[in-house]
Amino acid sequence: MKLKEKMVAVPIIKHPMVYLLLVLVFLVMLRTPILSVFSRPEMILMIYLGIFLIFSVTVGFKEIGPLYNKGGGIINLIGITGAVYICGILAESFTGYFLSANDPQLLNQYTFHLSGPYVLNQLARYSLVGIGEEIFKLCVFFILYWLGVKVSKHKLGSCIISVIVTSFFFGLLHSNYNYDQWLNITLIIGVGALVYFYFLFKYQTIVPLMIAHGLQDFLVSLEHTEELTGIYSLFLVGLILIWFIARFGFGIKVKTER
Fold first, then answer.
1. Are 177 and 185 a contacting pair, CB within 8 Å?
2. Is 149 exposed, middle or buried (0-12, 13-18, 19+ CB in 10 A)?
């Protein structure tokens, strides 16, 4: 099945108001002072991201569930995850270079001490972020797609517009790191989200997106320790080298002299 046919076959949600409520509550938590009443607001956000996972295997399972059950084996999963990770980062990096935007989110100002508890905490945190935010994006997409089809009756056009709007809306939500660079942040992260959607439609599975998303954020957190500075770039280079070896290196006979 071609990519176009897969996009047209995207299911239309039956209960859009439930999806809308789930998304709106998360946006209210992000964009209002409501979390200030809690002593650990980050923990509340992580719990809510977990709710997206619970939602996806309960109320929203009819639409989201098929994206979990694609099989293909562990090797296939690793391969797709690596492709998503590499292409997503390269797309964001190229966009940042084109915009002359170096660290628009000002992440380099953060420095942490490397320790076992820190690594475990970040791993648990960004595992939830990877899962929850990918389902959040999918929920936003489903809402927009439902609305587009309802208004225009055109599935492919509605799908394309919904992907674009969802991607750049997701990028805009990250502008709180540096409002002065909101446009650069929106474009960089939005382009990366477009790449993720491409792989979602191409392979009809959301799991590699979750893993790649969580892994990228986790490695960024390790990058901000003095002990592991540079690990983010090294990991990317390592993945690219592995891909080249897997793509072009197998089957080559090496002659040895006796």
1. yes
2. middle
- Do the Cβ atoms of 202 and 194 come closer than 8 Å? no
Positive or negative CA dihedral for 229, 233, 235, 241? Answer: negative
Tell me the residue length of the chain.
Answer: 258
Cα 179 from Cα 159, distance rounded (Å): 29
- Provide CB contacts within 8 A for 105, sequence distance 6+: 174, 177, 178, 181, 185
Q: What is the pLDDT of residues 122-154, one digit of tens each?
A: 999 999 999 999 999 999 999 999 999 999 999
204 near 70, Cβ under 8 Å?
Answer: yes
- Output the six-digit token pair for 252: 């080559």
pTM for the full predicted model: 0.93
Q: How far is residue 96's CA from residue 90's CA, in Å, rounded to a whole number?
A: 10
Answer for the pair 183, 95: CB distance below 8 angstroms, yes or no.
Answer: no
Q: 3-class SS at 252?
A: coil
Question: How distant, in Å, are the alpha carbons of 100, 208, 209, 224 from that of 168?
Answer: 19, 21, 17, 26
Chain CA centroid to CA 182, Å: 19
DSSP secondary structure letters along 195-227: HHHHHHHHH--SHHHHHHHHHHHHHHHHHTBGG
How many helices (H) and strands (E) the chain has is answered by 10, 0
